[in-house]
Structures are given as structure tokens and as C-alpha cells.
Amino acid sequence: MITFTLSAILIIASISLPFTKSEPYEDKEALLDFIRNIHHSRSLNWDTNFPVCFLWTGVTCNSDNTRVVALRLPGMGLRGSIPSNTLSRLSSLQILSLRSNGISGDFPQDFSNLRNLTSLYLQSNKFTGSLPSDFSVWNSLTVLDLSGNRFNGSIPPSISSLNHLTSLNLSNNSLTGEIPDINIPSLQQINLTNNHLTGILPNSLMRYPSSAFSGNELSSQIAIPPATSAETPIPQPARKPRGKLTEPAILGIVLGGCVVSFAAIALLMICSYSRGKNDGGLPTTKTRLKKKKKKDIGGGDGKSNKLVFFEGCRLAFDLEDLLRASAEVLGKGSYGTTYKAALEDATTTVVVKRLKEVGVGKKEFEGQMEVVGGIKHENVCPLRAYYYSKDEKLMVYDFYDRGSVSVLLHGM
To answer: Fewest CB atoms within 10 Å of the CB: 50, 87, 190, 371?
Structure first.
């Protein structure tokens, strides 16, 4: 009996040992300290009994699951200041996205410990105070977005030390003073609109569109447009990178990536559901236009439209992330176009489809999505999220590298 018990213990220990080694306990505790000390209105599945690298929403680990390298919590209803000595303990963190929350207070001083950051997204929050004086500690940064906050003071000249920076957005703050000489050859996009900047525009920034500096009191050899709305988008470079979709096109991405062409199955179900409610299948073009026009007059789709994720989904991004994603067309059909969308964090790839000419109301569309999202089968790719607006209906699925019928049949 004793021998059997000892053998059982050894077997259990040998099975659990690999998981023990691969669990980043220090990072896990740092994340728990963070979420326990900041208000959040959206529930997270950050359970101490779950492995952080596999089941925690918004968390991505390195290849051997020993450190957390990305944290993406956009639109999670985070409010209040970031607790000190929490996220700053994630020393291997490369991507941090806390966009579109209600985070307030000063820029966390202990973020200087995050020396491996490559992308920092803190836009659309309520940060106040001055910007960090020394940006050189983040010498690997490629994307810095602090727009839509309440930062004041001047722009630190140390930003010029970010030699790998490709995108800088400080728009819609209360920054003052002159713009430093930001001469970064790799910088493709810059947006300083709607601040209180004064003085002469540096020669190093003359190569960017004048609209990137509108809403300030600058003087230069080029005409600076007057202030526009607080939602001025970051300007696009003169030549758009190949493979990037424009906003109207990327807005439509949705569906697909199913092992057995689940797109056709889902759409057939939607069509059948619509026939039962409309007594005649899909509406004609004229009928559809009339319905759309009536809905426009009636006030549209509500206060805001967001991606709706199904329970258990570990994905954590928003529509803005999709707008910035590089995309590849996977296929076109009678009901829309399917895309492979690689988010700019370089760790998340999804398949999305834009449903065209779907003349249904929001409640009906949501009901249909709930039906499709409830399908559970080993050969069916589950629906992860959907999006509804007056002009766009999107469906989001996981991406499978070898997930097409052609690959299964021909091995290519």
C-alpha cells in the first residue's frame, strides 16, 4: 500500500512538474496585485487556479511560458490610477495596451522599469500631469500613443532618442511650449493635433502633413490648418504600407478560418432564420435601402457600437485595433469578403468577415449571432465576437494556419 501511494505521488509530481516550471509566478502575482487594486467594470477570468499563459484574458507569454510579454486590456472599464509596483514588475513586458479606459493620475514613474517595451497604448484615458522627462529608458519603443488624455507641460526632447519609433501620437492633450527637434528617420506617423503648442515647426518635421500639427499656434513655411474636432485621426504616410487596408475596407473584416468552411454554414443558418421572420427570404435591394433609410432617421444603433465577445473568449482588442491591423484577403463570396487580420501587436491574428447587404436590425442581428455563437462542434470554428453598426456587420473567428478545405483535401 505504501509502495503504491509513493508511486502515485511520484507520477503526479512528474506530470505536474512541467506546468510548475512554465508558470511565471512573479508576473502572475504582479498582475493579481494590479487588478485587485484598480476598479474594473468588466469581469476578467484571472483566477489563481488557472494558468496565466493559457487562460487569462489579455495576457500573452513568451514561447516557453516563463514571462509575460504582452498585456492588452482595452475598454475594460479600468478606473483610477495605476497601482505602483504592480505592472512595473513585468520586466519582460513588450506590449502594453490600456487604451479606452478611465485611468487617471500621473504617468506611472515606475514604468521606467519596463525597459523592453516596444508598444505603449495609453490613449483615451484621463491621465494628467507632465510627460516622462526621460524617454531614453524605452529605447526599443516603436509605437507610442498617449493621445486623448490631459497631459500638460512641454514635449520632452528625449523623445528624439527613440531611434526605432515608427508612430507617435500625442494629440488631444494640453501640451504647451515649442516642439523639440524630433529627427527620427524611422518615424512614419506623427500626430500632435489639438494641443497648445507654440513657436516654429522644426525643419525635421516639415516632411509630415500639415494636418498632423493642426489645432496649435505654430508658425512655419507651411500652412497649419486650424483646430478641428477632438477626434482628429493620426495622419497616414504619403505611401500607405502594402497590405494595410483603408478604414472602410478593414471595418468590414469578419468571419472565416473554419476547418470545414463554417462561413457557409453560419450564413445559411442566418438566411433560414431571416426567412422565418420576413416571409420571403432576404429582402430585395429596394426593400433593403428603404429599411436602412428608415433606420437612419430613427436614430441609428444606440450610443456606441463595440465588438461583442462571447463568454470564454481570451481575445482582448477593440475595433480600433482592427482598423490598424494589416490584412490579407482570404476569399470573397456572395455574402461578403473574408480577411486574415494581423493586429499590430504582432501576437494576435484573427479571421474576420464583412457581411454585405444584410438588411436586419440590431436586435435581430444579435439574436442570430447568439444562435451561431452557441454552436459547439469539433469541426466547427466557434464564433468569438461580432460587431454591428448601421453600415457594417462583422463576425470574428480564430485563425487556423491550415484551416481551409483546400488544405485538407490537397495538403497544400
So the answer is: 50
Q: Which CA distances in Å does 292 have to 191, 283, 289, 360, 387?
A: 35, 12, 5, 9, 17
Over residues 17-42, the pLDDT tens digits come to: 344 457 899 999 999 999 999 998 88
Tell the burial category of 243 from Cβ atoms under 10 Å away from its Cβ (0-12, 13-18, 19+).
exposed
Q: d(Cα 200, Cα 219) in Å, to the nearest integer? A: 5
Interstrand relation of 217-219 and 196-200 (parallel, antiparallel or unpaired): parallel
Question: Pick from 219, 234, 258: which residue ends a domain?
Answer: 219
3-class secondary structure for 373-398?
A: HCCCCCCCCCEEEEEECCCCEEEEEE
Cβ atoms of residues 115 and 138 within 8 Å: yes
CB 98 within 8 A of CB 119: no
In this prediction the pTM is 0.59
**Which DSSP symbol is given to 254?**
B
Q: How high does pLDDT run on average in the chain?
A: 76
pLDDT at 403 (0 to 100): 54
- Asked if residue 406 and residue 282 are part of one domain, the reply reads yes
CATH number at residue 142: 3.80.10.10
Q: Residue 221's CB: how many other CB atoms inside 10 A?
A: 8
Nearest to 79 by CA among 111, 105, 109, 46: 105
* Residue 215: domain span: 22-219
**353 labelled binding-site residue:** yes
**Residue 320 located in a structural domain:** yes
Residue type (1 letter), 410? H
| CA proximity to 273, closest of 389, 393, 369, 388 | 369
pLDDT digits (tens, 9 = 90+) for 312-324: 566 767 777 777 7
Both 192 and 273 in one domain: the answer is: no
Q: How far apart are the first and last CA of the chain?
A: 55
Q: How many domains does the chain divide into? A: 2
Q: 181 by DSSP, 3-state: which?
A: coil
**The dihedral formed by the CA atoms of 145, 150, 153 and 158, expressed in degrees to the nearest 10:** -20
| Per-residue cell: 112 | 521606467
Q: How far apart are CA 176 and CA 368, in angstroms?
A: 50
